[in-house]
Structure formats: C-alpha cells, structure tokens
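can u do me a favor
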C-alpha cells in the first residue's frame, strides 16, 4: 500500500484531511501478509501500510496499539546530498 498512498499524497501537496479513507487503496495492493505473534512481540509498520484486524477464535483477549508517532522534522524528498531518512528512502523507492 506504500506506492498508491505515496502517489496520492504526491498528487496533493496541499495536504489531506486526517479523516481521509485510505482503505480504498486495498484494490491496488497485490502482496498480502498475515502476522502472528507471541506475548511481548512488537511490529513496527511503515506509516503508509494498510492493516486490518483478524478474527479471534481463541476467545483470549488481544491488545493492539496504533500509537501515533510524530516526526521531529517534516519529510524532505529533495535533499541535495541524497542523505534521506529510512522512511523518506522507502517512500521514494515506492514511487
């Protein structure tokens, strides 16, 4: 989902509302993965990665936290020295 969301954001340099529905891009995705975990496992996903809940047939309580992480500085996609952050580089590669 990184490429289609990146392209959509690129097409709207003025910004988009945080309430925008990103799920409509699921039809452009081709590679789907299921993640399973053990107690204490942590997954860090790209901020443009679509994700969805799954069924919980075990009946055991599961916890998920979609912690909002703020960047220290705005992303910069035109660095003269090419010294991009890992996040910037992944978005540029997807585009």
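np, heres the sequence
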């Amino acid at each position: 989902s990184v490429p289609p969301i990146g392209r959509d954001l690129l097409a709207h340099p003025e910004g988009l509302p945080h309430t925008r529905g990103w799920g409509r891009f699921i039809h452009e995705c081709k590679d789907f993965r299921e993640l399973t975990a053990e107690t204490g496992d942590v997954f860090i996903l790209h901020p443009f990665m679509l994700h969805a809940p799954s069924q919980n047939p075990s009946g055991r309580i599961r916890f998920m936290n979609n912690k909002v992480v703020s960047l220290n500085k705005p992303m910069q996609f035109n660095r003269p020295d090419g010294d991009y952050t890992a996040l910037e580089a992944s978005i540029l590669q997807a585009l």
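Residues 2-10 form the longest helix (9 residues). hope that helps!!
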